[in-house]
Amino acid sequence: MEEVIYKSSSASLVFKKEKLIIELIWTKSSDSFEYREIFSNLVEFGRRNKVRYFLSDLRKEGHVPIEDLQWLNEEVLMKIDFPIES
Predict the structure, then answer these.
(1) Of 46, 61, 73, 82, which has the fewest beta carbons less than 10 angstroms from its beta carbon?
(2) How are beta strands 2-7 and 11-16 bridged, if at all?
(3) Looking at the domain that runs over 2-85, which CATH code has it been given?
């Protein structure tokens, strides 16, 4: 079973319950606000639902400003407790 847990014009977060995976599917670049909103939703859902893995295909993510990459590293990647695969 798959559940869309977040959807915007830039990306979707899909939870694959059988495997406890959140898949981030990019459709185009996002602005800083949306970029952070996507990952904030991912982390919050992951904490509530015992997610084991996060999978993202970066080919359509587009350019990400250094400030957002630093935020991602400090506020997301260092705080999640499930494996990351890209």
Answers:
(1) 73
(2) antiparallel
(3) 3.30.750
